Amino acid sequence: MPAPIPLRPRAARSAVVVGGxxxxxxxxxxxxxxxxAVQVVEQAKKLKEAGAGLQLSANATRVLRDLGVLERLxxxxxxxxxxxxxxxxxGARITRADYAPATTRFGAPFxxxxxxxxxxxxxxxxxxxxxxxALGAELQAVEPTGRSVRAVxxxxxxxxAHGADVLIGADGVRSAVRAHLGQTRGPVFSQRLAYRATIxxxxxxxxxxxxxxxPNAHLVTYPIRSGEALNIVAIVKEDRPxxxxxxxxxxxxxxxxxxxxxxxxxxLLARAPHFLxxxxxxxxxxxxxxxxxxxxxxxxxxxxxxxLAQGAAxxxxxxAVLAEKLRTHTEAEEALxxxxxxxxxxxARIQRQARLNGVVYHLSGAARLGRDLVLRRSGSxxxxxxxxxxxx
Length: 392
Prior knowledge:
Helix content: 25-40%
Oligomer: single chain
Number of helices: 13
Number of strands: 18
């Protein structure tokens, strides 16, 4: 009788994830499904995702399908029929791309969803899978301890230490874990503000993502909450750094920025009861994400501007790749290096392209006319330009 084949040891049997946003919860679920015990620590006392809507392209929904949450997501998300790109000043269509062929081409749907709905779904799935979640836990220190690492957190008046084989910093653009790794590059202000609002959906409104382009501004709209609400994101230029993050926005500033735009744009903005305001930041691509048994994920590793709608999608991709590397490698530090190597070039390219889109969207004069000509020639294959992203 042949001798039994010994089980291959895993790189890690436990992980602590710092951050309970979309990236952190996706990572927790993916790591748990890879067989790790997972502790999530989140400084907020209640899970609440800032913002309103987000777009999930096929590269993200494929991962969510593999994690077993796509069908639940479809219950609260919307599958839009098309992307319409329009001239903001006239409202005229520049080009249109239907999502159905892209869904077939890339093997997964394109969805739009409220951020809070996706976060709640991931939190529920992670806890059902056995992940522990500590809220109101503010990170104080990251302490390597030989062949493990500890996250020291403050919960109320008490300090607690959560030890694990690896620690994942999924704590956003102003990441405390990134600072622990000695990465001194801070957030870069894009000279753009985002004003966000939601309004009830007009039942006659088409089920589409609309992108209105104009000089120094653009506007994105799409349905969320199972089609019951319309998400509005108005992007305007601002030269001075703005540190506001999900703060009440000045409606007068929004209306002034779009005063000469098409009537349908002004009408949409007029229907918004109020706006929340963000300064838009990203970070320059980092030379490394990991040190020892600590690594970064999502915005902590590669915060990007929203002009490719890839921030959440790339964090979700990170989660899948990280789990796969920890499952297939026998040494934790090597697994984290392999994860970083697999993800760095791709996310840096997307960061750069998102910055470029921020320039292209806001062109004026002859440059605007040239841009629109290129978009018209792209026609129905507009989404195909990003095959390198959506194919994963």
